Amino acid sequence: MLLSPVEVQPPLDRGVSVNEDSVVESRPLNQSEENNAAILRTYKPRTPGVRHLKRPINDHLYKGRPYLPLTFSRRGQHIGGRNNTGKVTVRHRGAGAKRRIRIIDFNRTEPGRKLVERIEHDPGRNAHIALLSYTVDGKTEYSYIVAPQGMRPGERVESFRAGIPEQLMRELGGNPDAGMLAAKTAFRGNCLPLHMVPPGTTIYNIGLRKNGPAQLCRSAGTFATVVSKNDGHPQYSDYVDVKLKSGEVRRIQRDCCATIGVASNVNFNRRQLGKAGRKRWLGIRPTVRGLAMNASDHPHGGGRGKSKGNVHPVSIWGQLTKSGYKTRRKSNVNRYVITPRPRSEGKKAKKAKKKKENR
Predict the structure, then answer these.
(1) pLDDT tens by residue, 164-219
(2) Of 25, 122, 193, 247, which residue is least crowded by CB atoms under 10 Å?
C-alpha cells in the first residue's frame, strides 16, 4: 500500500504559527504551571473494565498519525522476549498491539532555533514526545525529542551543544558571565552542556559521555538537579555533580548534554489499567507464582496443598531471593557515584540500628 504525500507530511495544529518571524520562547522554569496537581480521568462504571480505570488527562496531545519518515515497524521475535536463536530470555513478554518505533533525537547536535509543531503520545515510552521543525538549506526538516512537562505547540527550543551562536555573544557583549548566559539560554526544552546549566536547575535527558546521547532521566516525570560545578577544584574541575531523583549523587563530565525541565507526563505512575486485558495490549503476559507450578517447572512447585518443600525462597533458576542473600558486587564499583541512593534495610539491620540509637 502506497502512502499519499499528505500522510507523510505532518499536519499542523490549528493556531500554530509557522511564520519564522514570530518568536514564542519557552517559559522559564520559575513560572508556575496552570495545574501541577494529579489530575486523573475516571469513568462511569458502565462495564467492569472501566470501573477502576484511571488515566492522566492529556487533552493537548495530537490525535493523528505520527510523522512516518521518523518511524519504523516493530517486528521480530524479540517482541516475545526471545533472542536470535528463538529461546525465551525475558519472561512475561508477548503479543500486544501493533506499534511503530519513533526515532528520537537524543543527541541534539543540530544548532539553531526549532519550532514545536505538536506534542504526541509515543507507545514505546511513557513520556510524551515533541515534533520539531527547522530549515536546513531551504528545506524543512523534522525531528522528535522527549518533551518536557508544560511544553506546548508554538514554542521554540534550541540546542547549544555545538557552541554559543555569534549573534548571542554580540548581544551579551562578547564575554558574558555565567548568570547572563543562563538568563538567555536556560529555558525549558533547551539542550545545553552541563557546565552551562546554573546550579539548582532541574534537568532531564542527561548524557554520560562527552559526545554521546542522553541516557539518564528519560522516563515520565523524572529529573535531576545540578548540585555543584566543582569550579576551581584541583581534581574534579572537569565534572559536574548531579543529584538524581533516586537520591544518588553522580559525577558527570561537564561537556555532557542535558535538557532543561522535567520529563513530561508526570502523572503516569498514578494511572490504573482497570482490567487484565490492558496489560495484554501492552505486550505483558501473566506472572505465575512458583508455588502454583509443577515440581518440574519451579523449585517451589509440586506437593499437596500449599507447600514449597521446606526450602528457602529461590528464583526459577534456583538462586536465593531472600534471607539476606547478597548480590551487590563489592569490587569494581562505579567510581562516578559520590553518594549512593538510599536503600531499604533488612530487619536485622533495623534492629541493630535501633539498639545503637537507644544506647
Answers:
(1) 888 888 888 877 778 888 888 889 999 999 999 999 999 999 999 998 999 999 99
(2) 247
